[in-house]
Amino acid sequence: MSIRKPIPRIKNDNYSEAAAKQRREFIEAETGVSLKHTGHYSIDPKVVEGNAENFIGVVQMPVGVAGPYLINGEHAQGVFYVPMATTEGTLIASYSRGMRVISESGGATVTVTGESMQRAPLFEFASAREALHFSRWLEQELPSIRAQAESTTAIGKLQHIQSWVIANKLFTRFNYSTGDAAGQNMTGKATHKACQWILGNYPGVIENFSLSCGIETDKKHSHMNLLHSRGKKVVAEATISKDVLKDLMRADPERMVRLRQRTILGAILAGSAYNGPHSANGIASMFIATGQDEANVVESHTGIAFMDLTPAGDLYYSVTLPSIICASYGGGTGLPTQRECLEMMDCYGQDKARKLAEIIGATVLAGDLSLAAAIVSDEWVSSHDQLGRNRP
Predict the structure, then answer these.
(1) What pLDDT digit, counting tens, does each position of 266-316 carry?
(2) Which pLDDT band, with edges at 50, 70 and 90, does 3 fall under?
(3) Where would one find coiled-coil regions in this protein (predicted)?
């Protein structure tokens, strides 16, 4: 006998307050848990269609702002206040502290050095030689393949196709630019169309095909994305005045660099995806606030932090984040509160994705600087005692 009790749905009106209320009452009856706060919201349930199924309400995540922050990007230029959604005490205060120190030292310089989004089809053959022959055919037919892929999207552009022969298989990565969208669904649709043309026009025999072979590493960390990038590759850097660093953070450049040398060893020992203090904190809090796909944090947080002393004795600090996957349009960015957070930084809509990526990169830089200085000055624990989770 089936004990399945389907979650209630209202045909042709499933994104309505009536449907949401019916589901809340169902869950309350099934679990005995009151959904008083979950069911309290200001948005119209109809706006979440395409974002969340079986809608019952919202999780009210605290949102604070860090800043003011002077950013000297190619796209993000000026002073910004950065929305961060988090439940971790001291986090926003720490990022604000880093932003102040960088701003008083001239600001953060940020550069988007590249961008691409991938889908990675697999083609199998009778032998490695045939797989190699096919890879050469792909190069020759790239204009036709590009035309097929780009026929599915107004903004996606197929940049190039990478390929690797392994045994009798050809692993590929179709690399796209995706405008202001993150682009995973866009590239999937485009690559599917292109591959249907390939399967119908290749003169040889393709014994097996899969639209994904795993090396796009969608929502998984990989060393490949560190080398080739997925999303936007961002470098954020700043030269921190030794006097400002000492006055505001009670740390000095020499000790900061010494700490970084040692944490690099620790990161190697642990096999870490990032050798800085905590890139995921800033990225996750901004992603949640601005309606990004939060699972992309696992790819976006990877990177390389670097410190050095300048001839004047100041601190040069940079973070290179090769796979920031963010959007200024589409997905969850248009939901009411998420859009407000994007608009707070003038990052909603067309031609704003690179600006958002620059602000994210600069924010990671500020948070890393603040935490590293707190370790050097031995204020890490005391700050949590004062503001965070260590409070009695």
Answers:
(1) 999 999 999 999 999 999 999 999 999 999 999 999 999 999 999 999 999
(2) confident
(3) none
Q: Which residues are catalytic?
A: 88, 293, 384
- What 3-state class would DSSP assign to 210? strand
Q: In this structure, which amino acid lies at residue 315?
A: L
Q: What is the pLDDT of residue 265?
A: 93
Mean pLDDT of 79-106: 97
Q: Report the CATH fold assignment for 63-114+231-387.
A: 3.90.770
**Gap between the Cα atoms of 137 and 131, Å rounded:** 10
The domain locations on the chain are: 13-60, 63-114+231-387, 121-210
Closest among 108, 127, 376 to 256, alpha carbons compared: 376
121-210: CATH class? alpha beta
- Integer-rounded Cα Rg, in Å, for the chain is 24
**Is the whole-model pTM more than 0.85?**
yes
Helix H segments across 33-158?
A: 91-104, 128-140, 142-150
Find all residues with CB under 8 Å of 305, minimum gap 6, and list them: 260, 274, 275, 276, 277, 317, 318, 319, 320, 368
- Residue 237 sits at the vertex; the CA angle it makes with 315 and 267, to the nearest 5 degrees, is 80
